[in-house]
Write a structure and sequence with these properties.
2 strands, 18 helices, membrane, mainly alpha, two-stranded antiparallel ribbon
Amino acid sequence: MGEQREQWSSKIGFILASAGAAIGLGAIWKFPYVTGTNGGGAFFLLFIAFTLLIGLPMLISEFVIGRGSKKEAVSAYQKLAPKSGWTWIGKFGLVGCFLLLSFYSVVGGWVLTYAILATSGQIIGPTADYGALFGSITGTPWIGLVGLAIFLVINVLVLSLGIRNGIEKANKFLMPLLFVFFLILVARSLTLEGASEGIRFFLQPDFYSITSEGVLYALGQSFFALAVGFSCLVTYSSYLDKKESIPTAAVSVVGMNLFVSLLAGLAIFPAIFALGFEPTEGPGLLFIVLPAVFAEMVLGELFLALFLLLFLFATLTSSFSLLEIIVSAFTESKKRTRKRVAAYSGLVIFLAGIPAALSFGALSNVQFFNLSIFDATDFLVSNIMLPLGCLLISLFISLRMEKRLMEQEILSGNRLTNRFFTVWLFLMKYVVPLVIIIVFINTLGIL
């Protein structure tokens, strides 16, 4: 028989775990390069506005569904809307998390490899070619597969320990370390000569530099960065005690996410400008440009190792939430043990991730719509399935979930008035679906 259903031991445990789910590749890897290529300060200001107006209501919605049902993602919709088509939202999220993990874990393997190389002093050097190094790591089959395997083994071990002893303890250790490492990097970056130009680029809005495409990217980043859409946080919030305040927890998670985005910008842009690099390098910013930036610093090897370690921490805490939705779905009936399901899930995800891991080397000639296996999977998940998941959840809140239950969940554990609930429901009914449809149409290239 399986284990008794657990709960988070404290509100801070839930908040740190939820923040860990949100703060990962999106906040540390994607946010700096999309900010750099979309106008800097103006993009950051729009991202903040959309996160508060779009991302926060979506996050509250997943929390309401999860705690309101006290079930993991698949069972939650079955309980709240039995014998209806709405139950497919949870299954959709399960498939999405599986596909996302199949390539997310490949990137996790790269980060793990870079972190090991950096801590052993093997990245920065007088004749180092950082572009060639990235190509070698991503294009060598055994490196990609070993990195993928180790990254998934770490996930399986943590998930096997359960909610309190696994995910909660790991996040209580990793998330504070992430903030400490980031603050060290920010302090180093801000003290470089010429750093002020980077600070101005990042924090001083120039709305003439933002394009309509940049506005839409900011909209998309606002909910991508919070891990909403695949019901991961429906599962996390199902372990939350009824006496805790959902809006307070959601605001805390959003605040931490925005703070990490701020720290990421302050760690990267001042250093890039101070050392004469361009902020518009795109996805290669982290793996190719940043080693070159750190190479110009005193104790650069140390600071690069710190950055990569915190990036590994953030990547792991996000992957925990993705694997948890899969593990919890298959242990809800109590007929299977968590350890066994976590192990089997890790193995299946490893097998599914092999094509993505080899798509930069042995399978580089395999293309779908002129995209590699890795890029095609990324496009399918990030640009189609995730916005669609967000839209379905917003429609479920608007059309199907019982209003009294939603009001009860939002007002429980705090002193908020009905006015807050009314504003949230208005945003979910009218504003959020419209914005998501606009982003979705844009990502399909229809606009």
